[in-house]
């Protein structure tokens, strides 16, 4: 791995407090129900693991992986499912969990696909929201932190698959 300069944006303790707050709100909103929590691989796995353990409502979990197409770093906007859920969602209360909303292309397409399967309800919880970068209108129901347009890593988020293991969120600088 190349040397990289990083600067802490959200330390571990701040993340822990925010995840507790989100879980409290979600538990209130879904009191008496059982959630199907859908994680979007790979980035969501750390946040999702912490979030579900802080919930006061029962849940089951499943995962999807999405694929987007385009040349280089410019996405065409075409998004499809690369790894599908293994759980039928009809009649279930779905909570999609994501590490970050950027252009909004991934989540808007995923929500569209999942709605066609007739869940009882569907909401989205995103750990980070980089709202300045939206290419399609998308608003998550629960957001951990809104962030500026910086390259962030850690707590599941990667740069070339590196840094996902970091316990805090850091801004990556000097990317060459
Ligand atoms: C990232 C992130 C979201 C998506 C958000 O996934 O985890 O799924 O991009 O971007 P968008 O709002 O512009 O669609 P990535 O494809 O980097 O895969 P990863 O989760 O494995 O890191």
How is this structure best described in words?
- The protein is α/β, with parallel strands linked by helices.
- The chain has a single domain (4-69, 77-175), classed as Rossmann fold.
- 22% of the residues lie in helices and 34% in strands.
- It contains 3 helices and 9 strands; from the N terminus they run βαβαβββαββββ.
- It has helices at residues 12-29, 45-54, 105-115, and strands at 5-10, 35-41, 59-69, 78-83, 93-101, 121-129, 142-146, 152-153, 169-173.
- A 6-stranded mixed beta sheet has the order 4-3-2-5-6-7, with helices on both faces. Strands 1-9-8 form a 3-stranded antiparallel beta sheet.
- Helix 1 crosses helix 2.
- The two termini are 13 Å apart.
- Bound molecules: 1-O-pyrophosphono-5-O-phosphono-alpha-D-ribofuranose.
- The site of 1-O-pyrophosphono-5-O-phosphono-alpha-D-ribofuranose has 14 residues, from strand 2, strand 5 and helix 3.
